[in-house]
Fold each of these.
Amino acid sequence: MIGIAFRAKDRRAFLGLPLSVFQSPRDRMNMHSIAKVIFGASIALGLTAAAGAQPAKDPKVGVTVNDPEGPAPNPANVAIVLPKDMKCIGTEGKMRICNLYGDPKMPGPYSQLFTWWPGNFTKPHYHNDERWGYVISGTWWVSSSTVYDERTTTPVHAGSVKIDKAHGIHWDGARSGAKEPTMLVLSGTGPSITQYVDENGKDTGPVH
């Protein structure tokens, strides 16, 4: 026996054993808790640093309707037609047609905005070109009968498309009792003509 008194810490070091062998369960639990706190704090600091490192918002993206308007586009690239500049025919309270693009009397594509007030219809007729109409609002009532009888009309509701086949007899409008006019966009390829027919489907009257 050497006769030298070692402190507990010195004895552990002398034996060459890890400190955890000589720690009590309570000491090991406390050390584990401290390690978790340190690890959690380092993660939080890392996330904070990453958030702070995010790039600034691009001012060109996410513009709202409350921000200033941009300049008018180059008219050579984009043409804008205001309502006051549209050419319209017809009668307010009955039926009105406004040209949106092109001219149905001229060669090439055209688009028109139709407004039908309740209680107004065309008479049976056909066109030489195929035309397709998209109902924006209200209900468009249509028939393919050669006899004018509003009871034969069927509804084409908003969001639907109606296609008038070339030389296909039809007529259309808006039934009485509706709370609002029917609005639709109708497109085709000119030159377009309208020919009315009698109850036998025979041409009658001049071409329009």
Note: Residues 185 and 200 are 30 Å apart (CA to CA).
Amino acid sequence: MKKFLMVAAGAAALTATPAMATDTVSITPTATVAPTCTLQAGVRNSPSLGSATNFIGYDPATQTTTTTTAVSEVDLSVAGPRLLTSLTIRCNTINATATFSTTNDFKLKNGASEIPYSLSFNNQTFQTTTTTGTLSSTGGPGGSGFGRSLNFILASAINPINVAPGTYDDTITVTVAPSV
């Protein structure tokens, strides 16, 4: 019997698998996408060219921003709102803030001569140095964005005999930012 136990113990030792330790790691990839907006403007060239436009700002075809300035000639002989540009705003948030500022405090200037004007956008009219408005329903992530008109408004038509000759100008800056 002793021999049998020794043989059985020896056979068990030969067939036993040694215990192995296991290690496990977990990897979690992460990425952060910041809230962002893009702005494209279809700037009307001049009243004499009708609806011809220059597109500036974000180009959805190339997904880049290239030209960011353009000139739009305004007709001083007509009072009331006139289309200056069509803005297309795309954000990965539902809401955004648009800020409008001008170099000459909402005045076309030629030296010391000035012609005051106002702008209207998203049912708001303004004529102060910097104006901010909240925009809703920008389309959110992957949306096509939304378009709004930016209108140039003269309080009354300008009679050329009453103003100095020359080129009158101002620079309007439009900035959009996501609202989270």
Note: The first strand starts at residue 37 and ends at 44.
